[in-house]
Automatic annotation (TrEMBL):
SUPFAM superfamilies, per the entry: Trimeric LpxA-like enzymes
Species this chain originates from: Nonlabens tegetincola
Tree of life domain: Bacteria
Alphabetized CDD domains for the sequence: LbH_paaY_like
Record-given protein name: Phenylacetic acid degradation protein PaaY
Listed Pfam families: Hexapep
């Protein structure tokens, strides 16, 4: 993994977590158990402290940073979707930050909130637990239902299993030049929220 010290601060990463070799973790960063950090994600604790509690995932192309002197925390099972930017904000337990969202300084996303994809959360915004948050600027449009949070939690469990799967099976390889006869079949073990609503 690409970890760098900064002014004497060395990242602390629990051995059960998986930081992709193409991710970058810098300085005063503490990463708990069963966390996943995807390729091209950057967690930059050069100017302040960043804490990822157990079971957090920060997916591909995300950026986590803040202004100097701040400390931010992603509570247990927080889920940060592909391409999101978290700048100086705190994320509640089991929340979901949608893909390509931007969460600005001193914002607080409460426990079990869901932030829709491509939302922009203004600095110092505070959202109570179980808020469904969308738009630019982002606003609460309704409460998160039990069905929605069950779906979100199931998705996060996949990411909490992923570090172990990566440690056990991920290898850097040369690509094949043709399809093998016995190519493995991938499991179908997840339903979208729309599929769940229809069932």
């Amino acid at each position: 993994m690409s970890c760098y010290s900064f002014k004497g601060h060395i990242p602390v990463v629990h051995e059960s977590s998986f930081i992709h070799p193409q991710a970058t973790v810098i300085g005063n960063v503490i990463i708990g158990k069963n966390c996943y950090v995807g390729p091209s994600a950057v967690i930059r604790g050069d100017w302040g402290e960043i804490i990822l509690e157990d079971g957090v995932n920060v997916q591909e192309n995300c950026t986590v940073h803040m202004f100097p002197g701040k400390s931010i925390r992603f509570r247990e099972s927080a889920h940060v979707g592909h391409g999101a930017v978290i700048h100086g904000a705190n994320l509640g337990r089991n929340c979901l930050i949608g893909m390509n969202s931007v969460i600005m300084d001193d914002a607080v996303i409460g426990d079990e909130c869901i932030v829709g994809a491509m939302s922009f959360v203004k600095a110092e915004s505070i959202f109570e637990p179980r808020s469904l948050i969308v738009g630019n600027p982002a606003k609460k449009i309704k409460d998160v239902s039990d069905q929605m949070i069950d779906w979100k939690t199931a998705g996060t469990r996949l990411y909490q299993q992923l570090p172990n799967d990566c440690h056990d099976t991920m290898l850097q390889v040369e690509p094949l030049r043709e399809l093998p006869k016995n190519r493995p079949v991938q499991e179908d073990f997840y339903k979208t929220l729309q599929e769940i609503k229809k069932s």
